[in-house]
Write a structure and sequence with these properties.
heterodimer; A: 7-stranded mixed beta sheet; globular; B: mainly alpha; 3 helices
Chain lengths: 181, 106
């Protein structure tokens, strides 16, 4: 019983994360030239929030955004050569973003350049409770997973502060796919 | 027995203590603790207590300072991680928006 409880406590952070980064993705770090690995769970976000200033506009906005979040997880890999990651690595993430709560709100594909980008929004009870971005280029792969309540106005506000785009479609969680050659 | 031996014998001979000696010694012993308690400030106790209190204060202050320092380091690191994550997110979303805009213009 005690071991079951300990196991449950250990697994709690994993449940807080909306999507699970597969082991194959974590192994890409060994091949990559540059790796960004950000794992901020609820307690780390709270800690970071305490050090964000209310006087600095950028930090104040970040603080407001973080107040409703449960976690931010980022994996970004930059490779020297193309083809270091496989489509299966991305599919392992994409397959977790199915179901009635997830909706792909934007998808951009460039066959020429080999770039792909997708934005997924999770909505529960009419509220955005998750955001996932999958961006892949021949020599770069970035996955962002934000868990928690995200107010549309926060996204819009941050658009002017951190360069976040004004995603009007996000509010309605509408699906807008764009594809080019 | 010569003169020296006789003198030694006399000098080392057992002699009974005078009757007032015992009483004097007992009185002196009885007075001892009384004198100790009244002269607390004059003894080494205050210095010892002050040293112990100062050491405790310094120790607890040091622990608190170290804890605060560690928390600040962890907090600043978490803040930097958060800002990095937000920058990457915004940069990726910005790229997607730009590309959607350029496709719409075409």
């Amino acid at each position: 019983m005690r071991y079951a409880l300990i196991g449950l406590v250990c697994l709690l952070p994993a449940f807080a994360q909306d999507i699970k980064f597969p082991a194959s993705l974590e192994k890409l770090a060994a091949k990559a030239d540059e790796v960004v690995d950000v794992t901020l769970d609820s307690s780390m976000l709270q800690l970071a929030s305490r050090f964000l200033s209310d006087k600095e506009p950028d930090e104040a906005h970040a603080k407001r955004l973080v107040s409703g979040l449960k976690g931010i997880y980022v994996r970004s890999f930059q490779f020297e050569n193309a083809g270091e990651y496989s489509p299966a690595d991305i599919e392992a993430i994409r397959s977790q973003l199915t179901g009635p709560t997830w909706a792909r709100v934007a998808s951009v594909r460039s066959r020429k350049a080999g770039d792909n980008a997708e934005v997924y929004i999770k909505t529960e009870g009419g509220q955005i409770t998750g955001l996932t971005v999958i961006a892949s280029e021949p020599k770069e792969l970035t996955i962002v997973n934000i868990v928690g309540n995200i107010r549309p106005e926060d996204l819009r506000d941050l658009g002017g502060r951190f360069g976040l785009p004004k995603m009007d479609g996000v509010n309605a969680a509408s699906k807008a796919e764009k594809k080019d050659e | 027995m010569d003169d020296l031996e006789r003198q030694l014998q006399q000098a080392l001979a057992r002699q009974e203590a005078p009757p007032w000696f015992e009483e004097k010694v007992l009185r002196a012993v009885a007075r001892q603790p009384e004198r100790r308690s009244t002269s607390w400030f004059g003894s080494a106790y205050p210095i010892r207590w002050a040293t112990a209190a100062l050491a405790t204060l310094l120790l607890s202050g040091g622990i608190a300072w170290q804890h605060e320092r560690q928390e600040r380091i962890a907090g600043e690191a978490a803040k930097a991680q958060l800002q990095l994550a937000l920058r990457i997110t915004s940069s990726q979303l910005h790229k997607i928006e730009k590309r959607i805009e350029s496709i719409e213009q075409d």
